[in-house]
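Q: Hexosyltransferase, please. Structure only.
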Amino acid sequence: MRRRGPDFRRPVRRRISNVVWWTLCGIVVLFFIFVLSKESQIESRPTIARRSERLDKIMEGLNITDEMLNADSVTRQLTDQISLAKAFVVIAKESNNLQFAWELSAQIRNSQVLLSNAATRRTPLSTRESETAIRDMALLLFQAQQLHYDSATMIMRLKAKIQALDEQMSTVSEKSSKYGQIAAEEVPKSLYCLGVRLTTEWFGNLNLQRKLKERKQMDATLKDNSLYHFCVFSDNILATSVVVNSTALNSKNPEKVVFHLVTDEINYSPMKAWFAINSFRGVTVVVQKFEDFKWLNASYVPVLKQLQDSETQSYYFSGSGGDGRTPIKFRNPKYLSMLNHLRFYIPEVFPALKKVVFLDDDVVVRKDLSALFSIDLNGNVNGAVETCMETFHRYHKYLNYSHPLIRSHFDPDACGWAFGMNVFDLVEWRKRNVTGIYHYWQEKNVDRTLWKLGTLPPGLLTFYGLTEPLNPSWHVLGLGYTNVDPQLIEKGAVLHFNGNSKPWLKIGMEKYKPLWEKYVDYTHPLLQQCNFH
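A: Structure for Hexosyltransferase:
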């Protein structure tokens, strides 16, 4: 029995030790809970403080007071009414309900006076002093809703208004395009006056005709391939004069420069008179008219043949051809002008020459161009500045690639280039029958499905694979329609006013006009008589 006594005492000791153990665990758990709760309180206080600080900054930035945040605030109610009333004033005016708009405006002023007085005395508005203003404004706002100035109705009305404005903007844009095109095509009175006076001068002054006969002795000069030959095809006397004058003034050897000018029957006499009256630092100038080219007839030239087609005449001249959606710029008769298409017949126009530089009449020359005649074109026909720095000037922007003939012959991502300053190797031109290539594509486009606009698209087709890229500084474009980097202008040898805003027109870009006007002598008696300034 003594040996079992300890056995009976052991369980008692175990029960006592378990109680103690659980008690200690409970104390520890309670201690940790206490510690954690303290830490959370410590952490929450800065968070609350930061949030409160942030709200204070927002209120300060928005000029919001505690009173306005109060749901029962009279000031807040008045402010909300004023905001809504201002919107209804605009809507009422749009609806031509001027009387109601005036009533709303008057009540807005009354409410604003109450708010201003309360702010001045630094005490909140009381319900008693604002009761009348709130009630009167509420009545007006309810009346506005009765007049269908509610949100849903106004959304529908504004949608209709936006649609109407879009249609109006489209119409205005179309008219603007038409009027801009008309302005670009107009002959200024001063230019018309100059042509008339020069024609009178030519037929009335025998000395000018005698000078021209004396210059016929320079036939050898016109065929001398050691000289620098330039050609310009134009009916604009003053613009052509600027091209010649700017080239002469910036040439290192003006006596070696020869200008071949081709114009039409109307401007032939005044053009001859102008260049007989004026001298350009020894530059040789010869004037021709394309009507004298016997080979230039409908049996040889596709453009002249197309002009005999009644549908083509209707499309370009009557304004009623096509589908009615074709932009006016595509239907400009100037794109069928022989002076525009004569650039594709340069070897026929100048059969004795081997290399020429072609210049448009809307350029200004600012550097010596003699180096152009020594550029190696590497067997190509056309030396031109590429314009594919942007995607707009790649082939797919000028040609209709839905047409299988275009799609199968030309890379849509091929780099475009510009007419206006081009070096032509006439020996290679004749060897490769480039004019025949032009004829082929012009005849294929009789229905205008390959391209629509101008002489550049057929040029891109004609000289595809036959164009040598030139340094961009030789030819800087865009002065007639966009902003051009001043550094490019400074480095440019030839500045091109391509676009509608020609420098001799009123719509010309004012900041670029001085670059062109620099080469116009406004003190010339004929220019003064015709009011050039």
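A: Brief note, in case it's useful. The longest strand covers residues 257-263.
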